[in-house]
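Researcher: I'd like a structural prediction for the single chain below. Treat it as a standalone chain; there are no partners to consider.
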Amino acid sequence: MILKDWELIRALSSNYNQWKDVTDIYISDGDIKNNELVNRVVKADELWSVVKSNHANRMTVWGNLSGEVSLFILPTYQLRSDSPDVDQGLSDIAPKQDIFGNSRPLGNGVDLGANEFTPKN
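Model: Treating it as a single chain, here is the predicted structure.
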């Protein structure tokens, strides 16, 4: 599946697991390759998350997105300057480098997701 900028995915149902702090979301689009969306940023209304895994028509995201029916997925690992994921991670559990080998953190804190936001000069 080739994602466009902020691809809309419809949720059929969802289930939040409070002990693992993840939400399994069952989606209508089964044309997504296994784990193709891992570490992508997800926006649902005013809630943000990161994809933990995906398989067939099930996507697992970190946190509680249960009850959300419209999900937007960023098509790249690269965060935008307006993303609430910038500087919101925990440095004690985050990798010292992002998916592209950039050092973390580059700003006031570690960014959520696979990529550390790099401002354009």
